[in-house]
Amino acid sequence: MFMSHQSLHEAINSIIATCNLMPEVFRDGIILCDRAKETIHVSEKVCVFTGYTQEELSKNNLFSLIANCSTLFQKDTVQFATSIKSKQGQMIPIIVYPKVIQLHEHTLFLFILQKQLALKLPLKSYFLAQFPNRFLFLHEMLRHAITHSHENNTYGALLLLDINNFKIINHVKGHTIGDYVLTDIAKRISLVVNTLSVEHLNGDEFAIVFQTQSKRYHNAEEKIRILSTKILKAIQEPILIENQSFILTASVGVVPFLGEQYTPEKIIQYADAALHEAKKYGRNSTHFFSPLLQQKREDKATLLERLQYAILHQQMSIFYQKQWKHTIKNNGINVIGAEALVRWIDPVHGIITPEKFIPLAEESGCIIPLGTWILHETLKQLKLWENDPIKCEWQLSINISIKQFERDDFIAVVQNLVQQTACNPHKIRFELTESLLVQDLTNSLKKIEALTKLGISLSIDDFGTGYSSLSYLKRLPIHELKIDQSFIRDLITDNADVILVQTILGIGKRFGLDVVAEGVETKEQYEMLCEMGCAYFQGYFLSKPIEGALL
């Protein structure tokens, strides 16, 4: 495959940037040459200890400056003790870590240098723990594995391994301890598989390229599972560092491949997908890639691209579902407000409901610009209601995502929008989830108090589906509970739901909170809820969500 000059230039810049990520204590110089042995890049530190200028080094054949350079690229050469000639003619002892990098039809030679006099610990022992080298080395390993698989008609495999919750060690014990832990894990993996088949990619992720030597998929899969189990078992053994014991687990994503079935880039992409799935199944899980899994990820990526376009080009619309109050005195029911519900108006697929895109918006971060837009549009609508003799009394409920609420500027954004629209904040009610509140109760309390000072009231959405502890109710100035519609759906036939709804109504009464039943779709549900003492309702039985202009 032909590689354009621009692509080659970008690849070279990426290689240099990746090398520069290595802590300086582990490198005294970087040299990059092409197949013609002409210099592409020399780091400034090489100039410092050799005495040459950048211009002088670029004119020299660097291969001629490094003694015995021809032996550097013999098979299995990982490091090589040699010397480099300075401008004054001195031979400076160095250790060279060579890598041949194949970029399609272009061959590059990378040298990472360490001065022997300054060397305290071998760089190789830190390669696995310090050098994020996915781009540099993994592609090369996979290229050789694909060739071997093709020539022998046997399955190869890439195993991506991620250490679960490793960040906690770095945060609590510090990066030095974390580095030692990673080095120990790398050694354990290397004892299970061939050392040359293991690379540390970045952070807490490792790659193992495995030649199964099996021609049948079933046999190859069995060998891969045995290998994965051995690796996971080795990682589980306690790690002792400075009188501290660490017990870790890992997740593994696997891509078996036969011959030239996939490119190295695709193999890595598919292994990432498999690893992501493995993490969903908990600790010590191994998950194999499947085309169906990849199709789901590609569909998700396509949906995200469409969603980002929709937010940018305002293909979103706000619908409003009325909320009702039942009065026992005259057995009547009146509209007291509405909940704002976002809809995606796709030009091809029509109206798309929130449950189909809000989780993706949360995961991708799109919820931040979308949430700000929703707030702006709904507060403008609230301002318009002030001119209506009936709607001027309505309360407006707005859902706030965890991502929005967690942002440091959330309160400032709300304050600015309230000022811009000049709406009455006492008519605003934010709906928050239980998980949002209890993740960081102290911080939540500060923000809720700030919102309360503005005049904004708070509701707990989907109450009863999240946490069994209700201690936060006595600490937070909450005004409303919303019974999740999953409890209402089978209320007529499921006695357990009846008990749950009665319990929530009792909690609301004792804490002096309004309780709204969501998802009321039938007359039977409505009447039963009235008999149970519920006074506030929302659902298709009373009104469907409609656009603001049609309210």
Short overview:
By secondary structure, this protein is of the alpha/beta class. The chain is 44% helix and 25% strand.
What are the defining features of this structure?
single chain; 551 residues; alpha/beta; Beta-Lactamase; Alpha-Beta Plaits; TIM Barrel; 3 domains; eight-stranded mixed β-barrel; 21 helices; 22 strands; elongated
Question: How would you sum up this structure, described in words?
Answer:
Helix 5 (about 125-130) packs across helix 8 (about 175-190), helix 7 runs antiparallel to helix 8 and helix 13 (about 365-385) runs parallel beside helix 15 (about 410-420). The chain starts with a helix and ends with a strand. The chain has 21 helices and 22 strands. The protein has 3 domains: about 5-120, PAS domain (Beta-Lactamase), CATH 3.30.450; about 130-290, Alpha-Beta Plaits; about 305-550, TIM Barrel, CATH 3.20.20.450. By secondary structure, the chain is α/β, with parallel strands linked by helices. Strands 13-14-16-17-18-19-20-21 form an 8-stranded mixed β-barrel, surrounded by 5 helices. Strands 2-1-5-4-3 form a 5-stranded antiparallel β-sheet. It has a 5-stranded mixed β-sheet with strand order 7-8-6-11-12, sandwiched between helices.
Distance between the termini: 60 Å
CATH topology of the largest domain: TIM Barrel
Low-pLDDT sequence parts:
118-135
Going by CATH, the homologous superfamily of the largest domain would be EAL domain
> DSSP strand (E) fraction?
25-35%
**What is the global morphology?**
elongated
CATH class type of the largest domain:
Alpha Beta
Tell me which CATH architecture of the largest domain applies here. Answer: Alpha-Beta Barrel
Compute the number of strand runs: 22
Structural category is alpha/beta
What percent of the residues sit in helical stretches (DSSP H or I)? 40-55%
Q: How would you sum up the major sheet?
A: 8 strands, mixed, barrel
What Rg is obtained from the alpha carbons, in whole angstroms? 31 Å
